[in-house]
Amino acid sequence: MRIPILQLDRILLVSIQVDLTDNDAMQFQSDLVERVAAIEALGVAIDITALDVVDSYMARVINDTANMVRLLGAEVVICGIQPFVALTLIEMGRGLLGADCAFNLGQALEMLKGRIAKRGDTRFVGDEDV
Amino acid sequence: MNTAFQRLQRDRRGELLAAWQQHLAATFDRHHPHPPSLDVQREVLFDALLNTLTSGAPEDDFRLDPETDLARHLNRLIAEQARQLANPSDTIGALLALKQLVARALIDTNPQTPVIEDLLWLDRVFDGLSLFAFKSFVDIRERLIAEQSLSLLELSTPVLRVWSQVLLLPLVGVIDTQRARQITERLLEAIALHEARVTILDLTGVPVLDTSVAQHLMKTIDAARLLGSRVVMTGISPEGAQTLTKLGIRFADVISRATLRAGLAEALLLIDRRIAPIDEARPS
């Protein structure tokens, strides 16, 4: 199953709603990085509200994706981690999710916008594409 | 002393030389520029060769001494052709064509006496010559290649100063251990020289990012950081980002941007500078 990637200006939104198989995960990662590179995205919000269970594999997939996106020059925020999921992630080991987290999508977007505003490439005037 | 070849040299030298030159003009020279000096060089080589043939006895062993006139003339001719990027088979082919001509002339001038021993001697001489020619051809080419790769190495790792205290290191091509070390050295020298606070590492021109490249990059970045320079990486491709992450490589504390343009903006922010429109900057 392909995960849809929504675009909001130069921010991308993805919502993971089912457990991903190996193939799905690879597909998702390459789709997302291609997209980030194509539009030179400034931020990516990954929403996992719908996930009731996050095992170590899923955590790694999410973490890896965040790292890839960061290498491509975009900010990443993960949002919507359920209380129970947070508990199991902590029990499995700290640092399983290295990226920054937000409570819900709204806060994630705010966080992204705040960080994007502090970046050098968005504070540049006179460099916008016409 | 070899009488059969002596007779040949006395009676048919001019005829043989003309035949050889003619043959070369019809084959090899058709595809290549043909400076007049080449004819002279060939004639000198031809005479040196005939002298060698006459001076040896048919049962002698033949080994070409690189100090002899013959070897020197041959070397000079080959050097010229190697530099013109001629086909090696053409060069050797020219020698072998001469062998045919001489063998034919040898048989023609001695219709009664058997000349098998002389022919074998001729064969040995030309075998030795061909081996020598081939070796020096390859040597010259290899020297050329070594020179070129050295100059490529020099060319491909410039450290550019794009702003005061901002350095740009555009990486182009394959990065191996030797190049990586050279890049690191150059970069550190430049950072120290210009007191750079920010270094932009542009990877747009790196075709493959693998473990070894990533490790070299990490070393370069760490070294730059030890000198007190922040590193901004730019131009990583989507595939590159995936590979790096899957290899488990983390560039902690490195700012990464999609394009050199964004990286430059980031670098300027880090040194508290900005590019402003001319009107704004002009004092009113």
From TrEMBL, chain A:
PROSITE patterns: STAS. It comes from the Bacteria. Residues 1-93 form the STAS domain. Transmembrane segments: none annotated. Pfam families: STAS. InterPro entries: Bact_StressResp_Reg (IPR051932), STAS_dom (IPR002645), STAS_dom_sf (IPR036513). Signal peptide: none annotated. Gene3D superfamilies: STAS domain. This is STAS domain-containing protein. It comes from Allochromatium humboldtianum.
TrEMBL record, chain B:
Keywords: Phosphoprotein. PROSITE patterns: STAS. CDD domains: STAS_RsbR_RsbS_like (cd07041). Residues 156-271 form the STAS domain. Transmembrane segments: none annotated. It holds the Pfam family RsbRD_N. This is STAS domain-containing protein. It comes from Allochromatium humboldtianum.
